[in-house]
Records
---
Amino acid sequence: MPHDPSASPSPVAEGTPFRCGYVALVGRPNTGKSTLLNQLLGQMLSITADRAQTTRHRIQGVLSRPHAQLILVDSPGYQTQRINPLNKILNRTAQSVGQQADVVVLVTEAGRWRRQDDEILGWLKGDAPVIVALNKIDQLRNVNEVLPLIAQVHEAHPGLAAIVPICARNGQGIEALLDAIESNLPEGEAIYGEDELTDRPERFFAAEIVREKLFRLLGEELPYESTVVIDRFEEEGNLRRIAATIIVERRAHKPIVLGHGGERIKRIASEARQDMERMFDGKVFLTLWVQVRSGWAKDAAHLRSYGYE
Ligand SMILES: Nc1nc2c(ncn2[C@@H]2O[C@H](COP(=O)(O)OP(=O)(O)OP(=O)(O)O)[C@@H](O)[C@H]2O)c(=O)[nH]1
């Protein structure tokens, strides 16, 4: 809406503007991305299943702050890094992530700057603002040891939005990192309303874990229009009984997901169950089905037209 200078200023114009956008964590293996994500997860909300499953992003959670909504997304490179040669992945990550995210956080290690870190930064140039998180500062003898590295990275990559030393394991520096991310997000209203967010993320994560296994084990064969629905999620003490359905659009997709003699679906189920047991810290009985439901993708396309993706 055009600004009318004669109108009395809105509260937003007077105060801090609200910011909202997609944030991606990238980096070479073992730098602490998962640990950082877990550190953030404690503060994050998840999205109700319908909305999350319309997307090609893997949304990991939404962080609501007084003046910002941060939507953490996974990058394709991050998802596939275990089944692809490193360079191909980093390249792919860098190529796609700038288009996917409004802010990119390169997670690397304070004591171990590598040539690959420079390469990733080179690839990321020109897209979204990039913040470098120098992780594992607890491994330094003295935290001031990080200062020369900050100067060095700053000189080599003057376009960086921020360089923030952190310890993903104990949470040190995380607030500063969040502030840096927030100030680099575009101004805009929250994408997710309160009614779309839940503070009971387990169900959501169960679906996400199955989706991740599908992605990892099917790779290029993964039918574009597939989704995962949690049919049942029951807790009995430390045991969770979870039933999930992988929905595909065409009959021909079903054998791809099942694999020869059902081998693939068994592996998806077994790996997903192990991840869930780790995440939920308890026993999991997982039942997995594959169902053909023509037409569901049209609904998804309809939801996408709300502007998501
Ligand atoms: N000392 C220390 N170790 C950390 C910190 N953050 C992560 N680590 C350790 O670094 C190792 C790798 O951490 P992950 O979080 O799995 O790293 P990642 O980048 O997700 O790894 P990939 O999944 O291989 O890409 C683990 O052993 C973590 O415990 C930290 O702040 N300090």
---
Amino acid sequence: MVLAQLGGSIAAALARMGKATVVDDKVLAECLNEISRALLQADVRFETVRDVKANIKATANLDALPAGTDKRRVIQKAVVGELCRMLDPGKPAFTPTKGKPSVVMFVGLQGSGKTTTCTKYADYYRRKGFNPALVCADTFRAGAFDQLKQNSSKAKIPFYGSYTESDPAKIAVEGVDTFRKEKCDLIIVDTSGRHKQEAALFEEMRQVSEATKPNLVIFVMDGSIGQAAFDQAQAFKHSASVGAVIVTKMDGHARGGGALSAVAATKSPVIFIGTGEHIPDFEVFDVKPFVSRLLGMGDLSGLMDKIQDVMPVDQLPDLVSGAFTLRLLYQMFQNLQNMGPLGQLFSMIPGFSAQFIEKGKEKEGQAKIKRYMTIMDSMTEKELDNTNPKLMNESRIKRIARGSGRLVKEVVDMLEEHKRIAKMWNKLPLNNRKLNTNSRDSLKPLVNAIPPNMLNQLGGLTGLQNMVKQMGAQKR
Ligand SMILES: Nc1nc2c(ncn2[C@@H]2O[C@H](COP(=O)(O)OP(=O)(O)OP(=O)(O)O)[C@@H](O)[C@H]2O)c(=O)[nH]1
């Protein structure tokens, strides 16, 4: 994602300033011009960039600093503070409380990723112990009902919608009432979109919002829309009092500036980002670690979360002792996808070794995982949990290929690969089905993925090895 480039440019501007013999107003002005250029290139609006520049200058206030102050650090702090301020409007978004019914309404243009994001959001809270439900109030797009229904059944989340009712506000109210009675504590209302901002869409949003009285309205925007984000976000804010933003498709070529503009337009924080088409491709958005990562300062807490995430292989004793089903393979893929480049940790999971992702072919390996997950997304629950080798007959394979838009040969290849891994897995004694942390070689992919300064903080290779061992021990 191009946000990384923005971070890189700002970090470079700061580094150049750091090399100047004397830091004076001229050096600061050069640094600020460089930062402004980087922000404009990332699609941040001119007005916002102008304010950022003025704010950094005012916060650093070089003339008022006592002699002997480290001006570089003061400027660095002002830049980091201003970037955080841009992304944090200072007013936290409403967060649902377990056991207390909340209604959350999703708004956004057609194709922004709204429907997909509703399910990701529901799944996120379900994993936190909530009892979420989905309501489809999109009567505009013909396929919306089926899409949300399919997503919700995949994620095992209750769903309400209607093929026949054409009034979105009526469906929304019926759905909310139904799930309130069923004691759901997070009722998510998906609304319709249009290709462009139209009066009819905003009127519909106003009506649905008035009828359901949501605790939170989330504006979903495609991260790649750039400058148009400001006006779009503002228009939704006026019709349905947006309280939070989710930026999708941050895995693609999103420049990120749009996200900054949406925050400015709605005065609401970004709460999550979407990083892919699958349900687990969803990350909590936390401003400080995000800015740290953006500027290459590392994010230790994020890294810890990611390492913890790979542990479910050990955490799920019933799966570990049971058969190696397609569902287990899918769950492993989910964990690895969540870890981004740390997916290289794959080689630490026994049974997979280097065969699945060949050295130097990590990109192809990731694409293969995505392809396999898409194929498995078209399987039934029975197929995912299947242990009978005869179940996958020709007609099932053809149906899965059709449903996932992949070739029959690709489905067959995936099933063969699953068989191969399952065979290896089944040969492993139970206590060997954990992360391999004993050999230093097995930690190499992790070491390569960690910035050197972070590795130092962890106590080098030995510290890392101890930490991973301790984590593994806690889980067993
Ligand atoms: N790469 C990527 N694709 C995404 C992401 N979120 C959604 N998509 C894809 O974007 C496309 C549109 O998503 P939908 O969820 O159908 O969009 P929508 O906004 O609900 O559209 P309407 O219901 O027509 O208003 C789908 O192909 C999704 O798979 C994401 O974070 N990354």
